[in-house]
Design goal:
Elements lengths: L6 H8 L10 E5 L8 E7 L8 H6 L11 E6 L2 E8 L2 E5 L7 E3 L9 E5 L3 E6 L8 H9 L9 E9 L2 E8 L4 E3 L3 H15 L3 E5 L6 E7 L5 E8 L13
Parallel strand pairs: 2-3, 8-9, 10-12
Antiparallel strand pairs: 1-2, 3-4, 4-5, 5-14, 6-7, 7-8, 9-10, 10-11, 12-13, 13-14
Length: 242
């Protein structure tokens, strides 16, 4: 990585909605080195360095990405495995010590869960995600004292066994995003824990479905949590100078 690259500054300049390019974040990808994990760094629109699952797996679609069905990677300090599966791009989300469902002091009438998956995720079960005013619902929870570091807020609606809809409000972006990969991962792991169904298709706000496959450990936390979906290269630009 260039030692003088100011990712936070570039993210704040390029990504904010209503100006710039309207992106949800900025990635810097190291040139792959054979035998070593591929190193990726991500910054949210507010300049915060965070782990991003969809961007990490989507990086495999770019020219120059490492070849092969499985790629070891470190994304914003989080060790993951990227893969090419079922005609799309996938990521094995982190698990084990330091990751998983966590207790919180939050009191809500709706069923909910909080999890750490490289970033904080609150998932709330609702009757209909379409009926939720997400800004009004999510912002107080995103800044709730129960979450000192803040949290992403996801609302999930069970449609059928193995199928759900989800909408996500992401910290750092401070708005609804088309698809939060880590939020989908925690939501699917929670649905698996509640229903016993290990394979899920989730429809996020974009309408483009993602699939999540999970195993549960004896402690009830996720293991082998794979998020898969498509990725499309929409364009490129040149000539940026720091």
């Amino acid at each position: 990585m260039p030692a003088d690259f100011d990712g936070a500054r570039w993210a704040r300049a390029l990504c904010p909605r209503g100006r710039g390019l309207g992106l949800d974040g900025l990635f810097l990808l190291a040139r792959p080195v054979p035998g070593l994990p591929w190193v990726l760094e991500h910054w949210d629109t507010d300049g915060g360095r965070t782990f991003c699952a969809n961007g990490s797996r989507g990086a495999l679609a770019l020219p120059g990405a490492p070849e092969g069905p499985l790629v070891s990677a470190v994304s914003s300090g989080v060790a993951v495995t990227l893969g090419r599966r079922n005609g799309g791009f996938a990521i094995r989300l982190p698990d084990g010590e330091g990751f998983g469902f966590q207790t919180s002091s939050l009191l809500l009438p709706e069923p909910h869960v909080f999890g750490w998956i490289g970033n904080p995720q609150l998932v709330v079960a609702v009757r209909s995600v379409a009926e939720i005013d997400l800004a009004a619902f999510a912002v107080p929870l995103r800044f709730h004292p129960a979450f000192p570091e803040g949290t992403n807020v996801n609302v999930v609606e069970l449609v059928a066994p193995g199928s759900a809809r989800i909408r996500s409000w992401e910290r750092g972006v401070e708005g609804e995003t088309l698809c939060c990969g880590t939020g989908c991962g925690v939501a699917a792991a929670w649905l698996a824990k509640r229903t016993g169904i290990m394979d899920w298709t989730l429809e996020p706000g974009s309408g483009d479905p993602v699939t999540v496959n999970v195993a549960l450990g004896e402690d009830g936390d996720w293991r082998e949590l794979w998020l898969s979906g498509g990725a499309e290269r929409m364009g490129h630009f040149e000539g940026v100078r720091n």
